Amino acid sequence: MLCLYSNDMAKEGKCFKFNRKLHLVTRLLPTKAIIIHGEQLKLLSNATLQEIVSHYQQVVFSRTSPAQKLQIVEAYQGTNNIVAVTGDGVNDAPALRKADIGIAMGIAGTDVSKQAADMILLNDNFASIVTGVEEGRLIFDNLKKSIAYTLTSNIPEIMPFMSYVIVGIPLPLSLVAILMIDLGTDLIMPFMSYVIVGIPLPLSLVAILMIDLGTDLKRELWDCDTLNDLEDSYGQQWSYAARKGLEASCSAGYFFAVLAIQWSDALISKTRKNSIVTQGMGNQMLNASLLFATAIAMFITVVPGVKNVLQLDGIRLRDAMIPVYYAVVMFIYDELRRWYLRKYPKGFIYRETYF
């Protein structure tokens, strides 16, 4: 919606029928634009002015006083509009102060208008306002994405310690491995601000690996370094080195699970509403980050010296693919969610899941 007010003369419009005795607009004509003279504006009540500005998309006010400029701003705010006001003179100061965002001219503007404004247009070019709004919205949108991405990557890092304290299972990730997630695979992602709005990381991966290998052991016996014939529920005996090797394999599986979900996170968070097919993969920084994260994961789980420091070990390809299935399901789910957002923009899912 566009509104222009000026101290210059303008020809009065014939867009509405006005009863001067009752101070009422009796009929709004079917048009998109209107010109209102300052003398006409004096006869309009606030309710009538709100009705007019809500009916017409483009309104020009001519020969307006400082009080009327303030009245115009209040009328638009009364119709639930976010109002931006531009001005360069002393008379514009009340309207600049009242508006949601006051924009003063940096070259032609007076000191009073600059002090009353929230933003100063340095080149006095109105086209720069559109560019500024676009960049501001982009920064705000990316800020929300980066915060959400950081929070979702922290959940699988906190859960190992919670499960260790509450349930008593071995730590799925060591402290050094967690640092590798934050400083290695997660290093470039925040700069692109791609985040997840889908389902969380599947925490069942470690349990799947351990059940597959037949363990049903007590924590106290598991950590006993002098016990080398610990027997599980299948009758299989485990030495201390074998138990710790199994634990390192489980940690590597958990590490791969975090990586796979981060892949899905990055692809999902490229767009908040559009499909990834429409958005495309033109962001070369994101593509490089995905490859970099994968290379880091392969490096720290394959190189002997590195994986020993991180307390990780190699895992079978079948086990490494388990989180990939979850990542694909999560990606498909979010594609369906975004399709529903586009189809039903006022529905329950839009209100509860769109941010």
Automatic annotation (TrEMBL):
Gene3D superfamilies assigned: Calcium-transporting ATPase, transmembrane domain (1.20.1110.10), HAD superfamily/HAD-like (3.40.50.1000)
GO cellular component terms, semicolon-separated: plasma membrane
Organism of origin: Strongylus vulgaris (Blood worm)
Protein name: Cation-transporting P-type ATPase C-terminal domain-containing protein
Transmembrane segments: 161-181, 187-211, 285-303, 315-333
One GO biological process term: proton transmembrane transport
A Pfam family hit: Hydrolase_3
Membrane is among the record's keywords: yes
Subcellular location: Membrane
